[in-house]
Amino acid sequence: MSLTIEHLTNLQSKLQNDSNDYQIELREGNLIVMGPSDIVSSYIGAQLSRLLGNWVTPRRLGLVFDSSGGFILPNADLTAPDVSYVSRSRMPRTVRYFSEVVPDLVVEIKSQSEKPFGHSFAYRITKLQEKLQMFLGQGVKVGILIDPDELTVTLYRHHQTPIVFTDNETLTLPELLPGWELQISDLWPPVFEENGD
């Protein structure tokens, strides 16, 4: 049986009093339930959202969303990228529902907690790569995959070879955010010395 967004919203209403924090997506007619991510992945998502928002918001370029923002794609999937951006020309106003606008930018962050039982981390990366290719096929302009274990950021564009950025490099997105720069090293959590420095 192929499930729909109505099934997902019914399940969400039944879980609303549950103390657990479930994130549910609808992919190819299947409900995917995901638990919380590890704190490093969470930090990276918050950091990237802040760095994007600091550029986007004062310039009124569009909207930045966190991992709770649901998007209904043309293929009827309902997904919530870890970070996403939609330009203001494509989303002039928000609604109190899932967005039916395809994001311009989606970001997926490899999480330690999402390693399937009995599978290697390479399996997880492959699934995230497939998910980003699906996003691009649905109209997303740019996809980004962040791997905290390898300290890499991989940039995906439709019908182009992915570009891998390492710790000492700078990522730019001139087609979406002219002038914005991301120092890859700014994404990783700082290490604090025990004396407070």
Provide a descriptive summary of the structure in words.
With 197 residues, this protein is an alpha+beta fold. It has three helices and twelve strands. It has helices at 5-15, 39-59, 121-137; strands at 23-27, 30-34, 62-65, 71-72, 78-79, 83-87, 105-109, 142-147, 152-157, 163-165, 170-172, 181-183. The strands form four sheets. Strands 3-6-7-8-9-10 form a six-stranded mixed sheet, sandwiched between helices. Strands 1-2 form a two-stranded antiparallel ribbon. The protein is globular. The relative contact order is 0.13.
What is this entry, summarized?
The chain is α+β, with helices and mostly antiparallel strands and 197 residues long.
What would the keywords be for this entry?
197 residues, alpha+beta, two-stranded antiparallel sheet, 12 strands, 25% helix, globular
Radius of gyration: 17 Å
Rough shape?
A: globular
Largest sheet: 6 strands, mixed
Spatial ordering of strands, largest sheet: 3-6-7-8-9-10
Helical/strand content category? alpha+beta
- Range of helix content: 10-25%
Q: Tally of extended strands?
A: 12
